[in-house]
Amino acid sequence: MASSAFSRNESRYFYALVALGLFVVLLGYLGMHAMEEHGHIITGMNNQIVWGIPHVFAIFMIVAASGVLNIGSIGTVFGKVPYKARAPMSGLLAIALLSGGLAVLMLDLGRPDRIIVAATYFNPTSVFAWNIFLYSGFFTLAAIYIWTMMEKRINPWSKPVGFLMFAWRVLLTSGTGLIFAFLVVRQAYASALLPPMFIVLSFAWGLAVFLIVQSAMYTWNGRGLDPAILKRMKNLLGVFIISSLYLVATYHLTNLYFAKQTGFEHFILRDGGIYPTIFWAGYVLLGSLLPLALIYFPGMGNTKAVVSASLLVILGSFALLYVFIIGGQAYPLSIFPGYEVSSSFGDGQIGKYIPSLPEILLGFGGLAIAFLITIVSTRVLKSLPLDVAVVTPKNDA
Amino acid sequence: MSETNLDRRDFLTKSSIGLAGLAIAPGMLLFDMAHARPLGEAASNKVRWGMLIDNNKCETGCNDCVTACNTENGLSGGTKPTDSQWIRKVQLKDTFTGRVSSLPMMCQHCENPPCVDVCPTQASFKRADGIVLVDKHICIGCRYCVMACPYQARSFVHEVLHDQKPEVPRGKGTVESCTLCVHRIDKGDTTACAEACTKAGHKAILFGDLNDPESEISKRIRTVTSTQIRADLGLNTGVRYEGI
Amino acid sequence: MNMALRLAAILFSIFITTAVHAADKPILPNIDIGKGGQCVEPDHALMRKTHMNLLKHQRDETMRKGIRGQKYSLAECVECHASTKTNSVLGSNEAFCQGCHAYAAVKLDCFECHANKRKVTAEASK
Q1: B 150-179: CB under 8 A from C
Q2: Structural domain boundaries, residue C78
Q3: In this predicted complex, what is the ipTM?
Q4: Which residue in A125, A171, A255, B234 is deepest, having the highest Cβ count within 10 Å?
């Protein structure tokens, strides 16, 4: 039937996908090389906006990496059976996404040839330095976690490793939020809400990525996903989207109450031109409300709707990160409260930023690295979730 | 009679003052020279370098401190968003009173620098005598310090540089900021901006040792009202401002 | 399979011959030592072997502790060893720093930031 005809060309399709992935990685390499040779002057970044599109891509991948491992944790740590079968794949996806994200982050450095310096000179108060340790540990633990689940003899170890992995992830993702939260002077970032916000965002983004990859794998292998499991997972995605919206809303609403923050909030939510547009249309409408409709409206909730919802969530994540990272830098610092300021260095002015080609290529190169690791590892390892029995949905997640 | 006595007294007074001056002057010269740290000696926290900038004396429209800094440190002097600016003139307008003024803004050399806290490699560090510097040898160019600085004092070098000054190494891909003319003050000199401002006749920038109670800056800071920019952050800056 | 093995054997023997031949007559770079004179270290072979470590230790003393006027100052190296014609330690494969580094294929990072010209010229050209 269709599946046997498919499998005859399957190898070719697979190698075609690998070739495509390698091509995008090559483009990313070209972008990175241009940046390293000529400096960041060829990018859209400047002294007001020092973190640009590469950081948007990198932080999405790093946060999603942590979140995608949540799927496995729900099985291992919280004992939900359908998720147990999904744990190996979630581990592989986590490693893939983190690799891609870190690649983009490290290659965007001003001196990427000094990565060894970053790994050998530690500043105990710097979140970036903690991250060297946290990310390495994440890779190791994720690898061990996958191993405990795929090797029958050490299966009993999967639970303690799973717990450790869960705690490690909470620490790591909180750290991602703390990168920004510790920037006390920036009106966009100095908020204790950021660590929990990033954790909930990671759940939503990780699950969205997982749903897309899972659907693709099932289609590729000519299998169908049990509708009951699909329903559970899509409902969970809905819960995560709502929680994310809640935290983002809380963050903005509480900020609005501080008189000194209202200028910034009005900039992001109303007056800032492109930033409010991306926030409301990109994150709120397309990235949250539309997926919720696709998940919950009666008649929706089938595979196509769920995959579309997941893709929209990812689009929304890029929108949110763009507004958060770049919009947050565009708004000028309040160095002289009570004064209108101007200078040759952008004081009092909104920073300008236009993404450039090298940066965008680098970002997509990172996505391609994650893509390549995913497809190669899922082909080599038996990580396709094999559900033992049909599970009737209960009241829990 | 009285005229002769006055004449003699006058002569004695003037000559003794002259002699006293001759005796003290070399000592004062030596005092100035003694400010240069001897070769081979490390910077110590007995000294804390700082500046006091008088907003009342700073002239709107004058850019001498900026020009001097650019010349001294080999900066391009450009003002594109990607150009490095270690010092800049900020034009201020009080939103309520409408009073217009200007002042120079540079790295504030905080005692608790946020840039030092966030640097992953400790490239951004505070020297024992209070100067906050970037060790370009280990700077990886992550720009976290640029994000963290409350004064937007740091610049990232966006392009390949040529013809650097021998005393001021700077390079592509690293972050830089005002070094308080560390290469000059280690020789006992003053900062380029302070020197230029004095030369221009405004004398708005006063540089000196905050830990030395007899230095001009310490004496002045004890008598006039001065403030830190963003004092609420609790950074204890080495650069203070008078008149805002 | 046989053909591949034969080809590999031929290539391998060419490689070995070349390497051995090169060992007989090493092609050393022709380095312009600039002003020359008495180096801070009398043993040149030791300098070649350890100058990067001496400079690295010195840079931390100067940069982080503010100790000036020490022996292994990079600026002083440039002052002596910059070519008397170009006043630079870079610019050609005969130049003092670039020559050996190009020969040994070791990346020269110092002059990304440090001035590669001796002070007199740097001031005169400004």
Answers
A1: 161, 163-167, 169-174
A2: 28-125
A3: 0.91
A4: A255
